[in-house]
Amino acid sequence: MAMTPSSLNESKQSSEIELLSCPVCYEPLIRKGPPGLIMQAICRSSFQCKKCYKSYSSKQTYLDLTVTAGLKKYVEVKPVGTELFRRSFMSFIYERGYRQCFKRYGFPGPDEELKMAQDYFKSAEGGVLVDVSCGSGLFAQRFAKSGTYSGVVALDFSENMLLQCYDYLKRDPMTLLATDLVLVRADVSRLPFTSCSVDAVHAGAALHCWPSPSNAVAEITRVLRSGGIFVGTTFLRSSPLTPWIFKPLTEKILPSQNYFREEEIEDLCTSCGLTNYSSKVEQSFIIFSAQKP
After folding, report:
1. Rounded distance between C-alpha atoms, residue 236 and residue 134, angstroms
2. Cβ atoms within 10 A of the Cβ of 96, count?
3. Rg of the chain over all Cα atoms, to the nearest angstrom
4. Number of other residues whose CB lies within 10 A of the CB of residue 84
5. Mind listing the pLDDT tens digit for each residue in 211-266?
């Protein structure tokens, strides 16, 4: 039986409510405010966990769904790499020279990287996509503009990156502030989504920045629906094109960072329950995809 427009709308609103969860206990959030997975609606709404009663509210530009949201005395300091990207100067320079430097390592550029990701996401079209570690919104904005997904969540732990993303969005208010796009502050190792609620997860140039990639990928697996797709890009420690004479050097210099060999990335995805791994490599650049069974 075909669904009526009203039943489709009710189904969409229900899925939006069930999507967001408490990062403490993963229970769906009770929402008070206008419906819709758009910034204007989210920023006018308040949320509360139905189990632990912890409350969450927006910062006018993004919704803070971290475990520490609302705390007044406790301050948690993350690893140096994480704290660096919380600085305002990093959010300012990210698209003003910093990201452009990736080309020397084989990254083809945002537009081509988007096309490559979209090819992997074919089966997730029409669903909800989460862009984790979205930074200044370089890809989240492109995913939203494509009109391919019913909703796009731009997620990052850095407050300043999300503010920078919002600043970029304000420059094109007619097309983006009314689009199914929402900014969320959250920890990739504690994703504020109910289990099996997300159709696609994208992580552009992010894997090497995570304090615990294994915890993050396990979380991504948890929130993906059956058949959901995870696509990521990162820097390889070494690639098939790396001259053999340099490989021992890179193995010694980079192991303390989260730079991987390709087989390590595949092993990580497999150990977290993902299947159908595939990848493309260009110099130190890798884009990979894996699917939840």
Report:
1. 20
2. 10
3. 19
4. 13
5. 999 999 999 999 999 999 999 999 998 655 544 444 444 444 444 457 899 999 99
CB 229 within 8 A of CB 257: no
Share of the chain above pLDDT 70, in %: 85
Complete edge-to-edge strand list for the sheet that includes strand 46-49: 29-32, 46-49, 55-57
Helix 213-223, helix 262-271: angle, nearest 10:
50
Give the dihedral of Cα atoms 6, 9, 11, 17; nearest 10 deg: -140
Dig out the tokens for 88 from the structure.
Answer: 């305002």
Identify the bridge partners of residue 48 per DSSP, sorted by sequence position: 30, 55
Contacts of 228 (CB under 8 A, 6+ apart): 124, 127, 198, 199, 200, 201, 291, 292
All residues at 6 or more sequence positions from 268 whose CB lies less than 8 Å from its CB, including other chains? 213, 214, 217, 260
In sequence order, the 6+-apart residues with CB closer than 8 A to the CB of 180 are 36, 37, 38, 144, 149, 150, 151, 152
Contact call for residues 217 and 272 (beta carbons, < 8 A):
yes
Q: How many residues does the chain have?
A: 293
